[in-house]
Amino acid sequence: MELTRAPQSWKTEFARRAAWERADRERFHDEQRKKQKQEQEQNRIEEQAELMLLGTVLASETKIETFTVRLDQYDTATVGALMENSRLLEQVRERIDEMLLDAHVLPDGRRVFRTRDGKQVFDEHGQEVDAETVHPDTIDPRRPFWETFKAELDERERLLQERTQLHDYQDRLDQARERVRQGNITERDLDDLGADLDQAMPASVRRALDRQAGKEPAVDRDSPQSSSPSLSEGDIEPVERRASRASLIPPI
């Protein structure tokens, strides 16, 4: 049976309607995309306006007072950290002085220390001394070893660096307090100042704050502050001999 072919006019009309439908769908999708883009732009403008408004809202007296109390707490913690730093620094210096008294002395007055393996010798400034000047075997093994002395020098340097950081942090606190005193400070300014102070806070100040809050910070047994390098019997010299050399100790 032979199929009847659709009239040419009917096929043309079908194609025309299909083209109209495609055009309608494309217009609909274009309008949807345009509407979505307009909404996104409007949201962006509103967000920017909100951020600008927040940036210009002056901080309330309550928030300023709360921030000032926070500065006082940070100040107190920093002073406490400085006091602890001074105590630890004094202990380190005493241990260094003791080891300098106990050290082997070269004819030129330098204090020297041999390593535990008996292969090297270093002077009090960390310079290696050749075997022609002093052979490691000539140094009494009961005297302080270089590793013990170097650990104290490193600890002293760490504490001195910490002290500088604490003084710098005090300056930050003073600058923040002065900014608050100037007035016309916004809520965003307070938030930025607080975030900056928290980020720059030295670890020792944070520990002091924990003590203020009644928290007991965990003790890091590997931390130089939690324990002092122990001295072996070979690191200790009779008091009489130490006293006789006290006047010969060079300044550290």
Strand-helix topology:
Layout: H1 8-56, H2 61-102, E1 104-105, E2 111-114, E3 121-123, H3 146-181, H4 187-200, H5 203-212, H6 239-245
Antiparallel strand pairs: 1-2, 2-3
Please tally the β strands and state the result: 3
| Cα separation of the termini | 117 Å
- Net shape: elongated
Calculate the mean pLDDT score and round it. 81
List low-pLDDT spans.
218-252
Largest sheet: 3 strands, antiparallel
| Estimated structural class | mainly alpha
Helical percentage = 55-70%
> Helices and strands, in N-to-C order?
HHEEEHHHH
Give the strand content: under 5%
Order of strands across the main sheet: 1-2-3
- Assembly type of the chains comes to single chain
Specify Rg, calculated over alpha carbons.
Answer: 38 Å
DSSP summary: helix tally: 6
